[in-house]
Amino acid sequence: MCSKLLMLFVCVSLVSGRSPHADYIDELIRSESYNYIFPDNTLEDAKLDVPGLIRKYKYPMEVHEVTTSDGYILQMHRIPHGRDQNQVPDPKRPIVFLMHGLLCSSADWVMSGPGSAFGYLLAEEGYDVWMGNARGNYYSRKHISVNPDDIDFWQFSWDEIGDIDLPTMIDYILDHTEREKIYYVGHSQGTTVFFVMCSLHPEYNYKIKAMHAFSPIAFMAHNESPLLKAMASFDNSMKILSALIGVGEVMSNNLFLKWAGESFCKDQAITQAICSNILFYIGGWSDEQLNTTMMPVYFGHTPAGSSVRQFIHYEQGFFTKDFRRYNHGPLKNIVLYGTRLPPKYDLSNILVPVFLYYSNIDPLAAVPDVNRLYKELGSKSKMMILLPSFNHFDYVWGINANTLLYDVVIRLMRFVDAYDNFMRKPYLTEYYKILMG
Fold first, then answer.
1. Is 267 among the catalytic positions?
2. Which of 106, 163, 392, 394 is catalytic?
3. Do 140 and 147 meet the contact criterion of CB atoms below 8 Å apart?
4. Name one GO molecular function term (predicted).
């Protein structure tokens, strides 16, 4: 596993920086691409990085860095206690670890601001909040020996994130706080990598109190994402993706945006602003839950970076209809895995209580695929929670995410704390019915 000798710690950095796309936001406003006057506060949030955002709103903030066994330097952001409630530091405060989705970052958990963003809500409710950043994103774009401009830096998919990055960050948190267990909340790819971690390293079942999966993704057989389906239509996907997106890193050139814009945006003026961001090609958007006033903030922080292989790995799942390790080709597969085909992740290894939050209109976490995931995880200690009219990014950006989702998660975490072996108790289902009103 990940050597603790390789872990590097940096705490309470005082320097705030700019968001990944602060220059783009400046250009956007100058060009008057939006026929709308955005509040100065919104534009400021669009250009601040995550530490700057948290400090702006007067929350305590720490920056921690850990180095993985293969040399990637990952940055985590911590909100150790609340601003308005639960303000006193407490070493016994329960820990929640939040993990972002594909092309995203820790910004997802704070960019909606106090009173709305899950990171702040958890801190006010008395939790010690840690937010991870996967290798290759804006905050984890460093390596002990390889430059991110080098193709070798990008030779990873979400397999390595689940196999190496997550255990490294979780072990660091437990070691630093001297605690035994944490809560885990993941969105999209943040759920995928958790399933990877516990499949490959079952010992992490005993380090997690419960896992809350927002838009859970393992199986992709019924994927309806316009972008991923378009990519999958190419016969030689890796060659096409490398040309359109970049040799190793997504968004390393503008060809991809040009292609995607021509393919999906056309002349529909109402969607032109949305179509300027890759995230909406992947997961779509919901008119009911999308706060258009916040769009500069979303665009300022996303996309935050990923490797081409992360996309290709999902695409492989679309073709095989299975949840398998990355397919390097027969010869390399034999060297790495001992078989010509990459092995399936063993979901039966996942014993930790898992709550699956899903909806009928999410193009990435399709209901049949979530149902299959639920069955393969085993019904014991698992629960499916249907959210009406939630699209893929509404779990982190939705106008009503607070009342429809976050309140439910917090109540369920408190329920887990209150009862031992709670998932085996017959009244959990009845409790959930009362919870949902």
1. no
2. 392
3. no
4. hydrolase activity, acting on ester bonds
Distance CA(193)–CA(162), nearest Å, equals 4
Q: Cβ contacts of residue 52 below 8 Å, gap of 6+? A: 16, 17, 18
Number of Cβ within a 10 Å radius of residue 90:
12
Based on the residue annotation, tell me whether 188 is a catalytic residue of this protein.
yes
Count of helix runs (H) and strand runs (E) in the chain: 20, 9
pLDDT for the residue 251 = 60
Amino acid at 265: C
Query: 3-state class of 308 per DSSP?
Result: helix
- Predicted confidence (pLDDT) per residue in 80-112, tens digit: 999 999 998 888 899 999 999 998 999 999 999
Name the catalytic one among 105, 116, 188, 307: 188
pTM reported for the whole predicted model: 0.89
Nearest to 320 by CA among 390, 397, 422, 223: 223
- 362, 369, 381, 394: the catalytic one is 362
199 given a catalytic annotation: no
Token code pair at residue 429: 């289902």
Per-residue model confidence as pLDDT tens digits over 365-403: 999 999 999 999 986 778 888 887 888 999 999 999 999
pLDDT tier for residue 289 given thresholds of 50, 70 and 90: confident
Instruction: Tally the residues of the chain.
Output: 437
Contact 256, 245 (CB under 8 A): yes
